[in-house]
Amino acid sequence: VLSHNLCTVLNVPHDPVALEEHFRDDDEGPVSNQGYMPYLNKFILEKVQGNFDKVEFNRMCWTLCAKKNLSKTPLLISDEDAFKVWVIFNFLSEDKYPLIIVPEEIEYLLKKITEAMGAGWQQEQFDHYKIALNTSREGLSAWELIDLIGSGQFSKGMDRQTVSMAINEVFNELILDVLKQGYMLKKGHKRKNWMERWFVLKPNIISYYVSEDLKDKKGDIILDGNCCVEALPDRDGKKCLFLIKCLDKTFEISASDKKKKQEWIQAIQTTVNLLRAGSPPPHKEARQKRKELRQKLLAEQEELERQMKELQAANENKQKELETVRKQLEAAAARAAEEEKKRLQTQVELQDRFSLELEREKMVRQKMEEQVAQKSSELEQYLQRVRELEEMYKQLQEALEDEKQARQDEETVRKLQARLLEEESAKRAELEKWHMQQQQTIQMTEAEKQELENQRIIKERALQVAMQQLKQLELERKEALEQYEEVKKKLETAANNTKSWKDKVAHHEGLIRLIEPGSKNPHLITNWGPAAFTEAELEQRQKSWKGKKATSE
């Protein structure tokens, strides 16, 4: 039954004849591990092509071992969440049996879950737990890790649903390679209509579904190094547009807001850059680096232990040699007195020489211990530096968010300024029209002068009203300019903050590289200031002014 199920989930054809042939001589009891493992390797694992559902394979393995090993103590997580933690454990555990997860990987996993819950990380609490763990063993088994997370020791104050959503988010990122997911609008290729879809970004593909339950898949966007993503201006009533260009198709997508648009563009561009460089996903690359660092430290520690053992063995050999020499000297002491004196003198010389060698060996051992302490201190300094860089990265993200908010405020003030200018232009056109009519009235005959005089008075009053309105618009425009200056100062402040963080990051040997905005289109400069209008708005206003001028003539 086990072999048949393994073949089913691994998409390997099951051969019952080979099974019977392999075990035809084993008729005296249950199949042993030693007898089944060669069959498993030869007839099942060697035929695996990689085109199987890894989640279903993990679920089958979970079914085989969960009932026997899972704790009977009530946990704060469901069986499904425990299964996901078990799969994550298999991904983060060391590559040796029995499988364990070391304290560094436990800290990484708990940090990811805590961040997904939106809670603060309790470093001091974990340090106490780590000290207690290191005194007893090297790491935790899968079932101990499930008990740790299910006990709620590091998720106090959080309900079951929040913890479950956090575990699911970490599972999607580490196991299913989901880099980003969410709802967006997609433009159809045939009917050109916009439909809401649930998008899932993975290292080499973007899949979109009808809803987030992932049951009804509508299509895929295959990513490679030749793909690119571009932001589009708002049009046809759709905002926050961007474009994904592939070799055979182009996809237009609309995000819910500007922040989501920028996040998706950045995530897709990062994925394409990784494909061009041939790099693995970020979480796999980070896991490999952590593993290499642990292996390097372990190798250095083993080398120091080997050297210590060699020194200890050499010291024991010296002690044995001294003991042998002492016995030889005692045996020779029974001989002649003159020969005894010579041997006693030789013994003293040998003892002095070996004492010097022992002192030298002690000094070497002391130096080795100092080097071990120095390596430990360097490791602590390196970890502290990594934590400082992570904190600096978070602060840098906050500064970038402030800069984005300042740019949005500037855009709002520009739109207000454009509206005021449009109203002012309309008033000016109306004023010029009235002025032309007044001049034509003055040139009329004297017989109509009295009647025109009355009309002129009425128009002058209207002109005064228009002038007052014009002054009011001037005041509003000045206020808008003042608001624009304030927003501009905020933007400069945010830019200076960003620059200072860039200098700090550059000072830390470039371990973090900032993602800077791309090239911008040339700014327009009008009599109202730089970037007051876009090209499309300027062309529209020129057409409006020409039409009003033709009407007045």
From TrEMBL:
- All residue ranges annotated as the PH domain in the record: 177-273
Q: Where in the cell?
A: Cell membrane; Cell projection, Lamellipodium; Cytoplasm; Nucleus
Q: Which PROSITE patterns match?
A: PH_DOMAIN
Supply the InterPro entries for this chain: EF-hand_SWAP70_N, PH-like_dom_sf, PH_domain, PH_SWAP70
Database matches in Pfam families: EF-hand_SWAP70_N, PH
UniProt subunit comment: The SWAP complex consists of NPM1, NCL, PARP1 and SWAP70.
Its protein name is: Switch-associated protein 70
Give the organism, scientific name.
Answer: Sclerurus mexicanus
Its lineage opens with: Eukaryota, Metazoa, Chordata, Craniata, Vertebrata
